Amino acid sequence: KLISELTPLTVHEGDDATFRCEVSPPDADITWLRNGVVVTPGPQLEMTQNGSSRTLTVRSCRLEDAGTVTARAGGTSTSARLHVRGSVLMETKQVLFLNLFSQPWPC
């Protein structure tokens, strides 16, 4: 069963997000889900275990990776939200664009 809760995470686009929980007994199997769908390891998803600790890492997060991550072990589960913020570069370009067009025209 799960003996700790997942913590909500907010990351910037392109950063990794790592969800962590503890299970008992240490050899307990865990199932990870994203938005209710079971996930398997791949280039963007890394699952690790170390003793009773289990982690799911979402590599190079994209805006569409935002959602709910759930860990299930036995009859227990825990969920947390993943929030992904747009890249700082994009926000800077938008601010520059807005500043450019909000300036009065020279006479």
Could you walk me through the main structural features you see in this protein, from its secondary elements to its overall organization?
With 107 residues, this protein is mainly beta. It is 14% helix and 42% strand. It contains one helix and eight strands, in the order E-E-E-E-E-E-E-E-H. The strands form two sheets. The chain has a five-stranded mixed β-sheet with strand order 1-8-7-3-4, with no helix packed on it. Strands 2-6-5 form a three-stranded antiparallel β-sheet, with no helix packed on it. Strand 3 and strand 4 (37-38) form a beta hairpin.
In short:
This protein has 107 residues and is mainly β.
Describe how the helices and strands are arranged.
Layout: E1 9-12, E2 17-22, E3 31-34, E4 37-38, E5 45-50, E6 53-58, E7 67-73, E8 76-85, H1 88-102
Query: Whole-number average pLDDT?
Result: 87
Main sheet specs: 5 strands, mixed
In the sheet with the most strands, the strands line up as 1-8-7-3-4
Order of helices and strands: EEEEEEEEH
- How many extended strands? 8
Q: Pick out the low-confidence regions.
A: none
Overall geometric form: elongated
| β-sheet strand percentage | 35-45%
End-to-end CA span: 72 Å
**Residue share in helix:** 10-25%
**Rg:** 19 Å
Tally of helical segments: 1
Structural class: mainly beta
